[in-house]
Amino acid sequence: MDRAPVARSLAGALALAALLAAGCGGGPATPARTAAPEAAPPPPSAVAVDPLPSWNEGAAKAAIVGFVARVTREDGPDFVPPSERVATFDNDGTLWAEQPIYVQLAFALDRVRDLAPQHPEWRNKEPFKSALAGDPKAALAGGERGLAELLAATHVGNTTEEFDAIVRQWISTAHHPRSGRPYIEMVYQPMLELLAYLRANGFKTFIVSGGGVDFMRPWTEDVYGVPPEQVVGSRARLEYKVRDGVPVIERLAGVDLVDDKAGKPVGIQQQIGRRPIAAFGNSDGDFEMLEWTTSGPGARLGVIVHHTDGTREWAYDRGSPIGTLAHALDEAPKRGWVVVDMKRDWNTVFGFER
Amino acid sequence: MDRAPVARSLAGALALAALLAAGCGGGPATPARTAAPEAAPPPPSAVAVDPLPSWNEGAAKAAIVGFVARVTREDGPDFVPPSERVATFDNDGTLWAEQPIYVQLAFALDRVRDLAPQHPEWRNKEPFKSALAGDPKAALAGGERGLAELLAATHVGNTTEEFDAIVRQWISTAHHPRSGRPYIEMVYQPMLELLAYLRANGFKTFIVSGGGVDFMRPWTEDVYGVPPEQVVGSRARLEYKVRDGVPVIERLAGVDLVDDKAGKPVGIQQQIGRRPIAAFGNSDGDFEMLEWTTSGPGARLGVIVHHTDGTREWAYDRGSPIGTLAHALDEAPKRGWVVVDMKRDWNTVFGFER
């Protein structure tokens, strides 16, 4: 069977609540690495300390540092007041690894296993049967419909607080299948430095991801220093009700926002209410966010993280069903977007390498 | 004709994009009063300066100050870390006056006048005919359907940036029909002090209003010190597109969220992603927000502003189609919610009185 078209339609559907195929582990809990939270910009230091030590000197680093210098220079022509320094970051493939499968899909597959005892009918029903047999590729062979079934069975029908607890429990115990590290250690060290550097320069940093917002919020503050109210993502329909005397918010089966492609500027407008001046992505799903950000007046920064390091991370772009990067890569030069070459521009990819 | 049922159904519909009936003015621009923006909490002062000088001493002020002291005392049993100090405020009737009509309705009626030259058909068509004749009550006699027509004609079919400019222009020139003051001066001085006081104690302050989010965001930062990304409101459906080579976000005719009643906890979850620990409202439209806020674990604060001052402001509650307050007032004692008696608890209502 030709799996490529299936994988591609999946990639589209997954943008939905964020996903794709293979195994994943479980193991002892490891505490999340913490990042500096939002803070008022400190006074400029007299000592020049490189705020981006994991970035090699080169065009990408120079473009980022130059942009920040321009918008923060109070007497300069490109000065932007701190309240308008909004920077948005895609998550999967931009802030943390998305290979060999989106982390949220690993979560969904693990959750099928956890819920299986209450669903004896899954033993003979796809996509659950294959998921339980440890064959996620077969589980996803049903395309969008199978995926939707997986998501519905594992992501909704609970309250926001119940789901929060489920995600916290999983993320503190699950491990990446290749590195054996907790998923929260699969974040890119250069991007953690960049988040902190922008915040130190008065920026407010937001995540704008195709992934599920309720899957990210439980851990983004600890891991990235980005609080829940600064996370924009795809979301389930919600309903407030008082259940047996207890107020709850229920997560329903419908999708309220697909925060991907043209959905990203919409999510940004709904939740942030102003156009970012800097945006960071890695795939064609981020094209519209970068287009919207960089077509505004004044100084603008659009950055694409290009996965070029097959040794320390993964090398993929046009042909990959996960994180497809073609149109945005073609457009980058004419739009003045910075393309970060992971292999060349980053001296460290993951913090655990050091 | 009995106008009460019409007014009541309107009050429901208006929660939608926020509205109700009578005249409104126009005049010279006046600069917005500014409020202190979000900032890191300053070190506790050795000198005791009353942070709430417009509040008379009494049970309401004591309850608010006592709550803040409890959640900020690091070694106390009710301590809440700053990142979780989320406070939400209704807008109409809680932060600024909503009589004799919701400000956003005054905006809609003025906009009918502005747009009339392009719509000769409005001269013979309700609700526009009555709106143009200066008779807003007749204009709204058509109930929800007429109101929906008014909103559709005046609020959508433009881009987010066009609408932002329209609101900025209007709010800087329109005047309140009774005080003759710019609408942005119809904000409550005690509530401005409360917003600043909470922020000085590490709270993040949000507006959560039934009013249109795009109607509020252009001025909330100047007037309340609340930036656009901390404003939750009712919203139109949005669509991102590239129009004649220019990326825009279009405001469509459908409603994406009615941020009122049970819609408020949903809006809070969508945009803030955590349950507030303090909530402030003035009507039954705020009931669910207060219920959701105060039913969480730990120290919680629910506050209702009760309009009791017919001299300095307006006196209304159960019988009023605007800002109906009945159920929430009845429930306040059993739920431990603080009821602010405007007449008794506030020594100043509007800053311009002084």
SSE layout and pairings?
2 copies of one chain form a homodimer.
Chain A: H1 4-17, H2 59-72, E1 86-89, H3 103-115, H4 128-132, H5 136-139, H6 143-155, H7 160-171, H8 189-200, E2 204-212, H9 213-224, E3 231-243, E4 246-257, H10 263-271, E5 278-281, H11 287-294, E6 301-308, E7 315-316, H12 327-335, E8 338-341, H13 342-345
Parallel strand pairs in A: 1-2, 1-5, 2-3, 5-6, 6-8
Antiparallel strand pairs in A: 3-4, 6-7
In short:
The structure is a homodimer of 354-residue chains. Chain A is an alpha/beta fold and 354 residues long. Helices cover 36% and strands 16% of the residues of chain A.
Low-pLDDT segments of chain A: 1-35
Shape of chain A: globular
Largest protein-protein interface: A-B, 42 and 42 residues
Q: For the residues shown, what is the average pLDDT of chain A? A: 88
Q: What is the chain-wise order of helices and strands of chain A?
A: HHEHHHHHHEHEEHEHEEHEH
**Rg on CA atoms of chain A, Å:** 20 Å
Structural class of chain A comes to alpha/beta
Number of helices of chain A: 13
Instruction: Please state the oligomeric state of the protein chains shown.
Output: homodimer
How would you characterize this protein structure?
The structure is a homodimer of 354-residue chains. With 354 residues, chain A is of the alpha/beta class. The first copy, chain A, is built from 13 helices and eight strands. In chain A, strands 1, 2, 3, 4, 5, 6, 7 and 8 form an eight-stranded mixed beta sheet that branches. In chain A, helix 3 packs across helix 6 and helix 7 crosses helix 9. The longest helix of chain A is centred in the first third of the chain and has 14 residues, at 4-17. The first copy, chain A, is globular and about 65 Å long. The interface between A and B is large, with 42 and 42 residues.
